[in-house]
Amino acid sequence: IGVPRQRLVKTAEEAREAVTQLGLPVVLKSQVRSGGRMKAGGVRFINSVGEVETAAAEISKLKIRGKSPVGILVESKGDVKQEYYLGVTYDASAKLPVAIFSDLVKRRQGKVQKGSPRVTSQCSYHSLNSEPSSWLAALGLQAETLIPLLRYSLG
To answer: Is residue 12 scored above 90 in pLDDT?
Structure first.
């Protein structure tokens, strides 16, 4: 699984520098703990150096659901063939972390990709440090495919 090259920046000038290092095209993503970034204007696709500073300045001032961004992620824009969602949250009633995986990913304007099957699975497990292949198997997934992504997501 390819992971796009990226840099976390705080200012429009740093965003321009990042684009110089990463090359075009890029995606600027508001770093705010909230959903709905795309609809709110917190994600911008950049195809020319001239757009970078203006877009970054606008994103850095944009509050999303009342929250200000802590930075802007500048990420190389790749040719995406298939998109997946993998999230980890906490199930308070079970007192365990829960992994949620789906190939049902929202696209621009919050629309679901046409023809995409509605597949969402979740699996409780005891520790984020436990071997992921056991709970991925319970989800019906191939560990070889998702473990690099999971390791990247968890740091």
So the answer is: yes
Q: Please count the helices (runs of H) and the strands (runs of E) in the chain.
A: 5, 7
Residues 18-31: b if buried by 16+ CB within 10 A, e if exposed? bbeebeeebbbbbb
| Token pair 């629309």: residue | 111
**Predicted confidence (pLDDT) at residue 128 exceeds the cutoff of 90:** no
- CA pair distance 21, 118, nearest whole angstrom: 38
Alpha carbons within 13 angstroms on the beta-carbon side of residue 30 total: 26
Q: Which of 7-11, 83-87, 105-109 has the lowest mean pLDDT?
A: 105-109
Which runs of E-coded beta strand occur in the chain? 6-9, 26-30, 43-46, 72-76, 85-91, 96-102, 120-124
Amino acid at 136: L
Structure tokens at 14: 């740093």
> What is the structure's pLDDT at 135?
57
- How far, in whole angstroms, is CA 153 from its chain's centroid? 9
Give this prediction's pTM.
Answer: 0.64
Other beta carbons within 10 angstroms of residue 110's beta carbon come to: 10
